[in-house]
Specification:
The structure is a homotrimer of 367-residue chains.
Chain A: H1 2-10, H2 19-29, H3 34-62, H4 65-75, H5 78-89, H6 93-122, E1 126-127, H7 130-153, H8 162-190, H9 192-195, H10 210-242, H11 246-258, H12 260-271, H13 275-304, H14 315-332, E2 336-337, H15 339-358
Antiparallel strand pairs in A: 1-2
Helix pairs in contact in A: 2-3, 2-10, 3-4, 3-10, 3-11, 5-6, 5-10, 5-13, 6-11, 6-12, 6-13, 6-14, 6-15, 7-8, 7-13, 7-14, 8-13, 12-13, 14-15
């Protein structure tokens, strides 16, 4: 327990934990102050995500290579998953889909771009393991093609019946999870040397005892779920007040909040000239969203949602995700980086955010 | 003749030749058993395609480098061409177009992916001639851009008159054939060293006498034409019975059947760690479809079809072909392969097949 | 002055200057002979563009590296800019947009392709600085993504009000100019060594005195403006007579005319086996159009046009620009070239031109 407290004292990000009780109390006292609750919830999720990711890593370190890698891979996007499940439960399908697409775009443009920019401001040119970057971007590219191909290929007649769309999304979800399993087999077992960056640098940090890590994992998961509920309840009203569409909130806000913890790690690695790690976190997390989080949400929607969710994204989302992953693939292909590459990635992200803010997918987008 | 018999005895694939008389007889006896005829015809075409490709290679070996290469390149997709011409004659334009698009996708995703997977299951990492792979994928990429650009760029008003679409497709077909001629000049004459993989391994096999080869070529061409006619006649009814759309049949079934012989060669090369050859067969065959088979069918449609055929593909086909060639380009760019790359290519192919099966291009697709 | 005359005597291209007075006089005498005026204006602009580019380079050489690079970069597409401003003033928005998109496509397909072909007809295989080509193509790719993303992502409801589209385009224009400033900072200051090709070969040529250069710049700018006005006035009628749509004129004719001077330099460099320079002129000019000319035209439209111009391109233009830049990126990635690569680029350009000529964006395209 003392190591948890020490961790909190030394990590300014974790001071934000104070917002967790704040938002829970505020939700009781002023349940109608949607904008306040929205802002508090967003701020409170950030440190919780950091704790979650720390606990996951501590557990995976104890359990040895194979199981640990599996755990890390499966729980790496736990925050996004919890928020999305809460939104699913509330029937906010547009928010869920926007957060899936947005998480892929945010990871492959914003996280990667900011890593390149922050690293590039300190180092003139940064080189990194080209083979590893290529494997990750190949996986990401194929994952998004598989996720989006049906939406890109077919213009589903809604008149043709939701049942077929449903069945189709279910079959696709199962295919995606199988591919995810194969990708884990490939990256953790048969060809793990291709993905290896020498050390992930956890060595320097104080290790958590396993009990503390498991305890933290459970408690924080519950807290994230509680805060997510407030977030999802308030988001509709708050967004309207702040002039944001549900698509913008899901695509930009939820994606940034959910990935905050990983970003902190990726940015710090970039500042230490270890772009291998930044690239692998950014692209690895993006492909996990496509291959694991998205299909799991489809399967869960049969249990927790008011009706099953399909995987039909609105056309603009398909285009943005494809542009983002192709750009990330192209950029990581050379194994070299300079500040301007990062600036350009951020710039494309800004264009997307601006487009979503000013021209949200309206009533004519298939939700 | 005895070498032909020896060949048949030693090649289990050729035992399927028994289905050739079977389907011809069945078509006489039970002309209304469409599903049976469809299945028999599909199975009968496979060994015929293998014989065709073997005869073509035997002839091209005898005639020396330049003429041989030309022959091999021009007759390499003879089976697809014969089936398509039969369908053209019957006015089945959707089937023809689907089989053109499907052949490109099948070659660049399924044939390439299965080669990578089969090779990767035996060898940890396979390396191959990067320059050759790049030349082939560059040619393929440009060929498909040229083939699809008009469909991607223009949303032709059908109201604007079929005549203009017709003229446009005719002009495009001529341009494509000119480009094909230039590509042969480049790959067989001015820069043939870039495409060379040391030996094509025919040395080991028993050589056919030239007369036998030419005789086989003619006889088998006639047999393929006869079986194709039964196939095209039965396909509509059989597809309806089996729940498949004409788009699915053309895109998946015809493409797989037509390429079966080349696949056997490509897979066996991959198992012998000669991916150069697999890549060159898969991508070379795909670009030949785009640059040669497609425009030739447009020109032939003026002679054999009830009305001229245009080159307007339905939007989903355009997207799938573009995704397939970009993916193949990206994957062959590195000159290395492992089993998972093959699995991912097959996986994207499965997603496409599933999409076509469950969401065929309906009445709203421009046929 | 004598050096200007000597220059003209030794450069056959400049003999076309005789068409400048010819078109100005003809416009007075036969103002209704639109087709004649159109042809004369097109021919007259070519040598003026050559003089403009020569004067710009002479000035930039005198003013030292940083300022000179800036000048060269900003005035490099001055001809295109003047023509576009004249068209803007006349309210010909379709022509302006088509010339922006067309300039990008013409530079990255036609100029690059013809350089590769002309160089390749003399040299078997040409190698060039791969890093430089990659930097240029990365910049171009991101520039066009930023320019086109909104058009690709959003299908703006026109019913939703032009005001929003206007504001959106204005915001995007400002973002693009900021990115352009950063790209200059990167390529001229912080990382200029990545873009360096040893010498740009101006050394051999006779240097112009600075006064002559500045004088030429101003006089020629005025002449281009005068000729452009005649061009824009006559183009509508002439195009109708010659069966060309405004989209075709802007996309192909204006783009070829505006880039004629740069093409002369790029082609001559390719013939001297200095593809570095050809690639950098072609791709550098294309990204400048996207990052500088296009947004400047949006800003200027508030001053000189009858109403503000937005950045919504018609869907076909978006597709062609994306295909052109992706192809150029792919092709320059390897740092090697042969004649067939150039032929294929020209071939794709021809397919686009044919498409635009035969199937212009009709009334259903958003203009």
């Amino acid at each position: 327990m003392s190591s948890l407290l020490r961790e909190i004292r030394h990590t300014p990000l974790l001071w934000l934990l104070i917002f967790v009780p704040a938002v829970l109390i505020a939700a009781r006292i002023v349940p109608a102050a949607h904008t306040l609750l929205f802002v508090l919830a967003v701020v409170a999720i950030v440190p919780l995500a950091a704790l979650l990711s720390h606990a996951t890593e501590a557990i995976s370190e104890k359990t040895g290579d194979a199981v640990g890698g599996l755990l890390n891979a499966t729980l790496g996007n736990l925050t996004e998953l919890i928020i999305a499940v809460t939104a699913l439960h509330a029937g906010e399908y547009m928010l869920v889909k926007a957060s899936i697409a947005g998480a892929i775009v945010t990871n492959s443009l914003f996280m990667l771009g900011a890593s390149f920019l922050l690293g590039g401001l300190r180092y003139h040119v940064q080189e990194y393991n080209r083979a590893g970057g290529r494997m990750h971007s190949a996986l990401l590219l194929m994952a998004t093609i598989a996720l989006l191909a049906p939406a890109a290929v077919s213009e589903l007649d809604l008149a043709r019946g939701e049942v077929m769309t449903q069945n189709f999304s279910l079959a696709l979800a199962i295919l995606l999870i199988v591919a995810y399993g194969l990708s884990l087999l490939f990256s953790l077992k048969t060809h793990k040397e291709l993905f290896a960056s020498e050390d992930r640098g956890q060595a320097e940090e104080a290790k958590w005892p396993i009990n503390l890590a498991i305890g933290t994992l459970f408690v924080v998961t519950v807290l994230v779920a509680l805060v997510s509920e407030i977030f999802v309840e308030s988001v509709q009203h708050a967004a309207a007040t702040l002039g944001m569409s549900p698509a913008f909130v899901g695509f930009i806000i939820v994606a940034l909040v959910g990935a905050a913890a990983e970003m902190a790690v990726a940015f710090s690695a970039a500042r230490k000239n270890r772009l291998d790690m930044s690239v692998s976190i950014a692209l690895g997390s993006a492909s996990q969203i496509a291959l694991f989080v998205a299909p799991v949400l489809v399967l869960l929607s049969y249990v927790v949602g008011p009706k099953p969710m399909d995987l039909q994204f609105w056309p603009g989302a398909v285009t943005m995700v494809m542009i983002a992953t192709v750009t990330a693939t192209f950029v990581t292909n050379s194994g070299r980086s300079a500040w301007f590459i990062g600036a350009l990635l951020l710039f494309i992200y800004a264009v997307f955010a601006m487009t979503l803010y000013m021209v949200p997918p309206g009533s004519h987008g298939s939700v």
